[in-house]
């Protein structure tokens, strides 16, 4: 078992390195706060979710400093080749809520699997919102998994908030149509764009990843209940306010197209008082 774990960790680190090299064609990625990851405690990562590509970006950079296993939608977990890998790395499979799948046992299953991972000294990545954002800021709504995990989290687990910015307007986001794009279709498009830009001239999107230790404040905000806890996380993610949409051109020698971000008629942008002088979030 130990040999299997070592092999999967080595394989994951090699894959992460190769993915980081590929991501450089399109993204200019900056990482802040990585020093807090270099300890021996299991970590619960709680990132915001701007686009389908951000788990790939996040995990490829997490593996520079430590290891982690993700909570993954069944849509991606069940892909034949990927399933072999995800199963051996210990990834947690959950039903795909965006397609209407409603496994009533999903919450208990997630909590059970996450705690099992902690007992094995694993770091876990789970997205509190459970889906990609439909606007330039994060909304968790009534999602429960992160709250229930943090409320009863064992002692000695570090809780790390991850604030990702720069992907609102990406072709992997909902900004253009209001719907989740097909990940693999966008991946094929991305490959075409790299070639069309002669490998090295693809316009680059700046993306920032910031890690922050929320262990104390997250536990404190879980005490009053789910709604205050979700609001606390939203305030952390939306610290800098609503992110303006950025539709970056895909081919350097073509003119920039003028586009507007999709906004449903019934959707009202909430004013974000995210600067809630809460660096008590620290």
Plain-language structure description:
With 282 residues, the protein is of the alpha/beta class. The protein has a single domain (2-276), classed as Glycerol-3-phosphate (1)-acyltransferase (3-Layer(aba) Sandwich). It has 9 helices and 7 strands. It has helices at residues 2-23, 54-62, 74-77, 80-89, 106-119, 145-151, 183-196, 215-222, 226-237; strands spanning 27-32, 43-47, 69-73, 92-94, 124-125, 158-165, 205-213. The model is unreliable at 265-282 (pLDDT under 50).
CATH topology: Glycerol-3-phosphate (1)-acyltransferase
- Total strand segments: 7
* Secondary-structure element series: HEEHEHHEHEHEHEHH
Shape: globular
- Kindly, what is the distance between the CA atoms of the first and last residues, rounded to a whole number of angstroms? 38 Å
Write the layout of secondary structure elements.
Elements: H1 2-23, E1 27-32, E2 43-47, H2 54-62, E3 69-73, H3 74-77, H4 80-89, E4 92-94, H5 106-119, E5 124-125, H6 145-151, E6 158-165, H7 183-196, E7 205-213, H8 215-222, H9 226-237
How would you briefly describe this protein structure?
This protein is of the alpha/beta class. Helices cover 35% and strands 13% of the residues.
């Amino acid at each position: 078992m130990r040999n299997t774990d070592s092999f999967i960790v080595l394989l994951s680190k090699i894959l992460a390195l190769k993915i980081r090299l590929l991501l450089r064609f399109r993204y200019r990625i900056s990482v802040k706060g990585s020093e807090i990851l270099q300890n021996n405690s299991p970590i619960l990562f709680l990132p915001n979710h701007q686009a389908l590509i951000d788990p790939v970006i996040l995990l490829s950079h997490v593996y520079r400093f430590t290891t982690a296993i993700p909570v993954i939608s069944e849509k991606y977990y069940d892909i034949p080749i990927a399933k072999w890998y995800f199963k051996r790395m210990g990834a947690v499979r959950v039903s795909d809520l965006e397609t209407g799948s409603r496994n009533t046992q999903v919450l208990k299953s997630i909590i059970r699997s996450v705690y099992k991972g902690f007992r094995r000294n694993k770091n876990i990545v789970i997205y509190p919102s459970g889906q990609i954002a439909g606007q330039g800021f994060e909304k968790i709504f009534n999602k429960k998994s992160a709250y229930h995990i943090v409320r009863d989290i064992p002692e000695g687990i570090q809780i790390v908030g991850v604030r990702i910015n720069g992907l609102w307007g990406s072709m992997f986001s909902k900004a253009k149509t209001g719907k989740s794009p097909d990940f693999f279709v966008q991946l094929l498009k991305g490959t075409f764009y790299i070639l069309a830009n002669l490998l090295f001239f693809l316009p680059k999107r700046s993306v920032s990843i910031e890690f922050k230790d929320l262990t104390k404040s997250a536990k404190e905000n879980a005490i009053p209940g789910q709604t205050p806890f979700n609001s606390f996380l939203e305030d952390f993610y939306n610290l800098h306010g609503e992110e303006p949409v950025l539709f970056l051109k895909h081919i350097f020698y073509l003119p920039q197209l003028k586009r507007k971000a999709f906004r449903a008629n019934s959707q009202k942008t909430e004013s974000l008082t995210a600067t809630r002088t809460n660096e008590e979030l620290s």
